[in-house]
Write a structure and sequence with these properties.
heterodimer, A: 242 residues, alpha/beta, three-stranded antiparallel β-sheet, B: 2 domains, six-stranded mixed beta barrel, 12 helices, elongated
Chain lengths: 242, 386
């Protein structure tokens, strides 16, 4: 799918619904959410707790099934795939950056960053060499043999970003990537994410409450009560600041 | 991913060593207690295994186990010999008699009186002297362990330091002279009394006179004769019970198993060993998987297949099981090799490592299955919920 200006559409979601059933209670998380993200774009999903951000990003990443609406991610509907095929699709299409980094402390950071490549079948040595290149790119030169616990929070998140990028996925989804970091570190991490997201053929979707990083995104998608409430562009944010 | 799975296991060193020691001690408890139990039970029929010559052991029907002597009339031997299919039959005396030592000490001993002519049922290994030396006057052969322990000469007739009993020394059995003509090696008895071999006729002279002196009849089966049918014929014609060696040993062990608290005592220790494994190693492994659940969840989100994740947990469980079992069975073997066999009954048959391995497998499989179940149920979307 392409737009008129030849920018490929990474994510096209329309009327996405999600309902959680807990006993006799139905909790509606998404009430027809629409979203379009282009390749090379960095968007932030913002909004109050419980507004459906995490459910939406989980559905986009193929981790959660939707109950209604349409979704295409890089031209494919993850829900139309079998469980095994969806797992394989996630492996080649989506990179993940988690709030708590989720780096395995008993592995070196190069090994942590190499996990997606090894899951794709690459041998451990080659995967670690490739991961080391990525670690160099995110500013962790010469630290590839370090343990995650020897790194600061910001450095650990950089490892997580390297891990998310190492197998060149088309979409990178980030869940509160700066919430466990101090302001300055969070800003540097988000700058890195934005830099990664603007690479050709790739899009980044970030869930964040942290308004200090909003200006680094191309668009901020505000959600409320399971819907897209409003969309801000970086330009409007800058104008607001002025 | 196998190397990463192992790094996850070995990297959590506190938990790894906890699981390793838990499984090792569980294996040690199970295999060591089982080996002592088997060792003790083996001693109850040690004389049967030490005496391979007879095909049949013929006893009073009321005899419940090897040492439960119900003596037979001396005519029993002739009656057995008269049955078609019996190649040979000899009397055996087996009883507890008092031995007087030169230093005045008295020691209850197991005296075995074997057939004077054939010397069938003699000791299994001669260390000094010869079995035929039993034909000398007042001759006895003494088990080597007793020469160092119960029959140690504290005041040797030649004077000097205490020493072991040796060939040429004399003892008194029921106030009758007995001369040591040989030293043998015999299986320790269940009650650990010294074992003395002599001829049947001499044993009956040493023993207090009774109307019935034949403890049992040992017999050989003629070639080509149906042993089962022969046992029935013996019962019909003599009213006596006949067993082959294996069945007689089983009957003896069966008695000790049924009629004493020994199996319950050892069984309790073995079950405790199993539960130590479950409580310590199984629980720790399950907690290890739970603690790593967020990493498994992250990998699942990133695209790790179920097969990959289950393979990682399985490899971790298998590794800890093999290492824990190996260490435990090694400790048991070291225990068995270092503790003197005459003091401690220890017999590790091939079944025991198998039983211990099965127990460890159950512990690790159960905890791994629980862990795998948690990994399978893991919703990859949970990684976005903090």
């Amino acid at each position: 799918m392409t737009l008129g200006n030849n920018q490929e559409i990474a994510v096209h979601a329309s009327g996405v619904e999600k309902v959680y059933i807990s006993g006799d209670t139905n909790v509606v998380a998404l009430r027809g959410a629409d979203l379009e993200v282009r390749c090379g774009e960095v968007v932030i999903l913002a909004g109050p707790s419980g507004c459906g951000k995490t459910s939406f990003i989980s559905i986009i990443a193929g981790l959660l099934a939707r109950d209604g609406g349409k979704l295409e991610v890089m031209g494919e509907d993850p829900q139309a795939l079998s469980t095994e095929a969806r797992t394989a699709w996630r492996l080649r299409t989506v990179g993940f950056v988690f709030q708590q980094f989720n780096l395995i402390p008993t592995l070196s950071i190069a090994e942590n960053a190499a996990i997606p490549l090894i899951l794709q079948g690459m041998d451990r040595r080659s995967a670690c060499v490739k991961a080391k290149e990525l670690l160099d790119q995110v500013g962790l030169n010469g630290r590839d043999r370090s343990s995650p616990i020897q790194l600061s929070g910001g450095q650990q998140q950089r490892v997580a970003i390297a891990r998310a990028m190492v197998n060149s996925p088309k979409i990178i989804v980030c869940d509160e990537p700066t919430s466990a970091l101090d302001g300055a570190t969070g800003l540097r991490v988000m700058e890195l994410i934005a830099q990664v997201g603007r690479m050709p053929g790739r899009a980044v979707i970030v869930v964040s409450h942290d308004d200090r990083i909003y200006h680094l995104a191309d668009r901020i998608i505000h959600m409320d009560d399971g819907r897209i409430d409003r969309i801000e562009t970086t330009a409007s944010l800058r104008n607001a600041h002025v | 991913m196998p190397i990463f799975a192992l790094k996850m296991l070995f990297g959590d060193s506190a938990r790894f060593y906890g699981m390793l020691l838990g499984l090792a001690f569980s294996t040690l408890l199970i295999s060591q207690q089982a080996s002592i139990f088997v060792g003790l039970m083996s001693r109850t029929f040690g004389f049967v295994t030490d005496t391979p010559q007879p095909d049949l052991w013929i006893v009073d029907p009321a005899q419940r186990f090897l040492d439960d002597n119900k003596p037979l009339r001396s005519t029993a031997v002739q009656r057995v010999r008269s049955i078609e299919g019996i190649e040979w039959a000899v009397p055996l005396f087996k009883g507890l008699l008092v031995v007087n030592l030169p230093d005045g000490k008295r020691q209850m001993s197991q005296v075995v009186g074997i057939d004077d002519a054939s010397l069938i049922a003699g000791p299994p290994f001669m260390l000094e002297g010869s079995l035929t030396d039993l034909r000398k006057p007042d001759a006895i052969i003494v088990d080597e362990k007793a020469t160092r322990r119960e029959f140690k000469m504290n005041n040797p007739p030649e004077g000097g330091e205490p020493r072991s009993l040796r060939v040429g020394d004399t003892l008194e059995l029921n106030d009758r002279r007995a001369e040591v003509v040989g030293i043998c090696k015999a299986t320790q008895t269940f009650q650990s009394q010294p074992v003395i071999y002599t001829t049947y006729s001499r044993a009956t002279e040493y023993a207090p006179m009774e109307r019935r002196m034949v403890t049992m009849v040992l017999a050989g089966v003629a070639p080509g004769v149906d042993e089962v049918q022969l046992i029935k014929t013996i019962a019909e014609r003599t009213g006596l019970s006949a067993f082959n060696g294996e069945d007689f040993a089983d009957k003896t062990v069966g008695y000790w198993m049924r009629e004493t608290g020994i199996p319950i005592n050892f069984g309790t220790a073995i079950v405790l060993g199993f539960f130590v494994g479950v409580a310590v190693a199984g629980q720790m492994f399950y907690n290890f998987v739970l603690d790593n659940l967020k990493y498994f969840g992250a990998m699942k989100a990133m695209g790790a297949s179920r097969k990959t994740l289950l393979g990682m947990v399985f490899l971790q469980a298998l590794t800890i099981a093999i290492l824990g079992f190996g260490l435990g069975i090694g400790m048991t073997s070291a225990f068995g090799l270092t503790v003197p066999g005459e003091r401690l009954a220890f017999r590790m048959t091939w079944h025991i490592p198998l039983i211990a391995a099965a127990s460890v497998t159950v512990i690790c499989t159960a905890s791994a299955a629980l862990g795998m179940w948690r990994v399978l149920r893991l919703d990859p979307a949970d990684v976005f919920k903090g």
